[in-house]
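Researcher: Structure prediction, please.
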Amino acid sequence: MEHGVAAYGPCSAHPPGLRERKKTRTREAIAYAAVRLALERGPENVRVADIAAVADVSPRTYNNYFASIPEAICALASDRALAMADAVRARPADEPLDEAVANAMLSVHEHDDFGKPLFRMIMGDSVLRGEFLKAIVVRDAALAQVVAERTGTMAADLYPQVVAAAIMSATRVAAHRWLHDDDADFGDVLRSAVAMVAPMVRVPTRLQATG
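Model: Predicted structure follows.
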């Protein structure tokens, strides 16, 4: 499986140049090192020097990419969250919105090398959870913009904001169920949860502009 932070970044009309690709690989190496060490030792026992050594970079280089250890540990999960809006935007225009969101989220998580252990660690640590929440707030706002684009409404309207909030709430419930049920398949739980808000998501266009 090909993985990397680059896979989660915003879509671009222009392929990144050599310098950008090198920076992405360095950031990726640091982020992966931070997660591996945090899972092995516990996030409270990880130091910048340790991450830099595993990533084969200098502490100064580390500081060029991340302002804190929690930021580095959460980077992979945060990047996946931030990729959601572009992933939904890339889905076929005639695909129902609820299906587009579920399919986009699953496509983003196909690149998840750490899966449940990383999510459990983030959710179980108040500092990491707070760091990850920053990306969630940005993701939800970006999804509202995509909902507006797909439904012909304005992002400031009530409808796209409520729909985005409903869908993201459903995905959070699905993630929580998956996290605490070792037998649960994330894809199945996610699709079931999102389908529950589908009636509101599929409101006729003439009603969507009343927000």
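Model: Residues 126-151 form the longest helix (26 residues).
Researcher: Thanks, that helps.
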